[in-house]
Amino acid sequence: MDFNGYIEFGDRGTNCTKEDTTRPFGIKTNYNFLLNKFDEIYSNTDLIVIETGDTTRLERYKNNLSSELYKEHKNEILNEIDNFIFNITNKLNENTKFIITVPYPSNEAANKGDRLTPLIIYEGEKNKQVLYSDTTRRDGIVGNVDIAPTILYYFNLNSSEMTGRILKSKDVADNLNYIKSLNQRVVNTSTQRVRVLYSFAIYEIIASILALGLIVFRKKIQSKWYKYISLGLIGSMIAPFTLLIIPIFGATDIVITYALLVSITVLIVFSIYLLSKYDPLNVILYSAALLVFSLLLDIITGQNLIKNSLLGYDPIIGARYYGIGNEYMGILIGAVLILITVLMEKYSINKYISIGFLGLVTIIVGFPKFGANVGGTITAVFTFLFVSTRLIGQKIDFKKIIYIGLAVVGVVGIMAIIDLFIIESQSHLAGAINQIVSGGPVVIYQIVVRKISMNLRLIGVTIWSKVLLSAIIVLGVLFYKPIGLIKKISLKYPKIAIGWSGIIVACIIGFAVNDSGIVSAATSIIFLISTVLYLIIHDLEH
């Protein structure tokens, strides 16, 4: 195509196909014509795009074929494509980049959740490599948006205003099996994710409602149920840790995944209960510490567990590829606030050491090479400064909120500078800034509108909105029945109460600044609702 948009050497005519009554719709790709056309224009053309077409026709015709005939046609078509590619590669000179891509999966693969499609770049006899791009930071998984910048880079053209990044290659032993194994893991995560997380969310709702019922109707319920419901609340805090480590076991069957989730969670809950010597603050402390330090360690070592966790993220839908997702971001902020305030409550840990730890967590969440979560960074800075101000005995007023807001801007700005000018593989923060610089203030407006639209959509479709709503209802009931119970537990544990107020702030800020803020708010509030109910029940029991 030239500057005027004319394609001088292309051909879309009837010669590209030929009649064949044994094929779907009675036609098939004319590979001999395509090959001759390629020979004709190869030396005079910089970019050639060839679409074979037969697989698309087969998919559209599939309902008219038996499964055996469909497979027979598919194998025959793929063999013809394979021979065509072989003939093409024999004609290429050493300077040619040859890309084979499949834009869409077959209907059969899509129905099974297997929606990642092959992308191959051939540049001569180079073996044992997989593709990589800064879009995904995942060996073997790249974005379709990366193809166009890669082509422009080949011609020494600028692609800075495009969404995608330039494709690179990395050496990987037995690369084909690596790709197959990677695809299987990703598909398993994608297909199991919704069902398992839905179950966890329902469990969280039921556990909190049962605990509320126990508190409200405590005089009518036998004392033995106090322990079981209390342990169920601790299970709500342990389950995210279990979901983090399940990928280690390589489970591919959803029944095994459920079995591991339940058995490991139960084992850890009872172990913590025994190790804590039935001290309620130690139970909460050990549960929060286990999750916080596991998450932080995984984030700084490459997010290998989060990437494959059902509570992590799904690269098939392209919501996130690296760093910490909003599910675990909310969990981490909620757990950190509980961990710090329980330590200060029970062991009188120095408040400045605690504040320093909150700062460290903020850096890990926001640093482009670690958490790379911009919304999480804003949430963490605002929330942790709010909590830190209260921990040092100062009241929150309008002036301090302004200072906290300025601190948020400063921290995000520092992360952006690091991302733009220091880190080699830039994250989506640098990409957003580049878009704002090139597109002007309207880009900021578009980002805000996108976030609001996404949250409004998610409120109606995600189970996490039900978790958040149920937690708000439970807290609302506790404020009025039994009267004074929330005030009493807050006065008994004043440091933890500050942590609870911080979680409420994290829910509000997280909801406002994230694409899926409803998710981060719902996962943060798990640690508020579970610890409040647990400590109230423990007090009532004793």
Strand-residue proportion: under 5%
Average pLDDT taken over every residue: 90
When the domains are counted, the total is 2
Query: What is the number of strand segments?
Result: 6
Distance between the termini: 80 Å
DSSP helical segment count: 19
- The backbone outline, from C-alpha atoms, is elongated
Structural class per helix/strand content? Answer: mainly alpha
Strand order of the largest sheet: 1-2
Largest sheet: 2 strands, antiparallel
Q: State the helical fraction.
A: 55-70%
Radius of gyration from CA coordinates: 28 Å
The ordered H/E elements are EEHHHEHEEHEHHHHHHHHHHHHHH
Give the SSE layout:
Blueprint: E1 17-19, E2 27-29, H1 31-41, H2 54-61, H3 67-89, E3 98-101, H4 107-111, E4 119-122, E5 129-132, H5 147-154, E6 168-171, H6 175-216, H7 224-245, H8 254-275, H9 280-300, H10 326-347, H11 351-366, H12 374-391, H13 398-421, H14 428-439, H15 442-461, H16 463-480, H17 485-492, H18 494-513, H19 517-541
Antiparallel strand pairs: 1-2, 3-4, 5-6
Helix pairs in contact: 6-7, 6-16, 6-19, 7-8, 7-9, 7-19, 8-9, 9-10, 10-11, 10-12, 10-18, 10-19, 11-12, 12-13, 12-18, 15-16, 16-19, 17-18, 18-19
